[in-house]
Amino acid sequence: MPFRRRPLRRTRVEEQAGPPIVEEDQYVPPRRPPEIWPWLLLLLLLVVGGLLAAYFFTRDNDHKNSSAGAVTVPAVVGVKQDEAVRRLNERDLVPQLNSRPSKFPAGTVFAQDPGARTEVDRRSSVTLSVSAATLTAVPTVVGSRTPAAVARLRRAGLQPQVTAVPATAPPGVVVAESPGPGTQVAKGSTVSLRVSKGQTTVPDVTGQLASDAKAALRAAGLVPIEFKVPGVEPKGTVTAQKPLSGKKVPRASKVRINVSTGAGSSRGTTTGGTVTTPAPQTIEVPKVVGLQQSTAQRRLHAAGLGSRIRYVSSQRPAGQVLGQSPGPGTSVRKGSKVRIAVSLGANPTRAPVPDVVGQDRQTATSTLQDAGFEVQVITVPPADPSQSGRVVDEQPSAGTRAPTGSTVTIYVGSS
User: Fold this and answer.
1) For the whole model, what pTM was predicted?
2) Which of 319, 341, 335, 306 is nearest to 411 (CA)?
3) Would you place residue 103 in the very low, low, confident or very high pLDDT band (cuts 50, 70, 90)?
4) Mode of pairing for the β-strands spanning 174-178 and 331-333
5) Of 14, 161, 168, 391, which residue is least crowded by CB atoms under 10 Å?
6) What is the structure's pLDDT at 13?
7) Which parts of 223-381 are beta strand (E)?
């Protein structure tokens, strides 16, 4: 800004007495304007600081208000599970997943609670029902054989669970299914099948030790129920059974056996008021290890003992006895059963032994031969005259998977 020269002041000098006064021009410098830029800078800093303070103050306020405030639940029905969870997380909501079958594609949300556009507090839970899988109808398999029923369920995308139950239907036939036929379930669901155990013939266990009788009944697929009763028979001997031997009953049926306590015996001699009961006859178990199965069974029978067969894996020749229990030389009661372990041989082909107890000798022999087995017949005194000429026991027992071509010994009642 240009400076203007100020006019010179002139001073008038009155003439007075004395020396003359010389009149001079006096120069007065112009006034400089004040410097304002430091104030402007200070003002600018104050404005910027105020704006920053206002920003942080309002941001904190917004955060506090939003944390404590309500949010709107988004609509996620029809959305894939991952996307639905992401949307809820963005709203600070907690997804709770519930997988159920539906008509929606697998992995899709088909229901939500609370519903869309509902106002809830932040961190609230929202339950999402997610489609588990596509639905399928349970096929009808009642009356079918187990393998066919299992295959049909698997073709429908279902998992079969088989439980054997007592029933009069032939063994292996489906008698019930759950869920029932036609029920809509998710693929991969389990369908329970109740399969008939079929019927079996009650073996004759009278006169046997209780332990042997129970083993024989269990081998026939039956459930022994023991009752202690007084009797003249040796202690621990089966004196009666119900149902009677030879009767056809559903597998897993109960069979009552009366077992003598040895009390109340009228046999023996009395000396000085003391009843003396003769000791039961005992037999020394012969050695059968190393013999062929059929030979071992004949030797045990000749000694007054029975046998129970158990097959074991071995590289020894098929049919060879590898072990016995009780061991050779052990004293046991007459009629006891000796368990013998028989070699399966190398790479055997096995088949289930048919149930022939109760059949006549000729029918039983034909049945076993048709199944691929050799037959050995041993005659025994029947406990009931009606069992004369009929099979009262078989070893190995019915249902055992024995090597094809091996020997099945049948014990036929003969009076």
Assistant:
1) 0.39
2) 306
3) confident
4) unpaired
5) 14
6) 45
7) 223-229, 238-242, 248-250, 254-260, 269-271, 274-276, 282-284, 306-312, 321-325, 331-333, 337-343, 350-352, 374-380
| Gap between the Cα atoms of 139 and 184, Å rounded | 10
- In terms of residues, how long is the chain? 415
Instruction: For residue 243, give Cα distances in angstroms to 52, 201, 205, 285, 358.
Output: 99, 10, 11, 32, 13
CB-CB neighbours of 201 under 10 Å: 24
Give percent helix, percent strand, percent coil of the chain, each to the nearest 5.
Answer: 20, 35, 45
pLDDT confidence band for 112 (50 / 70 / 90): very high
- CB proximity list for 61: less than 8 A, separation 6 or greater: none
* Cα-trace Rg, the chain: 52
Tokens, residue 193: 């099948």
> Residue 231's CB: how many other CB atoms inside 10 A?
19
> What is the DSSP code string of 337-365?
EEEEEEE--SS--EEEPP--TTSBHHHHH
Q: How many CB atoms lie within 10 A of CB 264?
A: 10
| Token digits of residue 302 | 């000749």
CA distance 85 to 77: 11
Q: Is pLDDT at 352 greater than 80 in this prediction? A: yes
CB-CB neighbours of 8 under 10 Å: 10
Beta bridge partners of 413: 380, 388
Q: What does the DSSP assignment read for 16-60?
A: -SSS---------PPPPPPP-HHHHHHHHHHHHHHHHHHHHHHHH
Cα–Cα dist 150/166, whole Å: 19
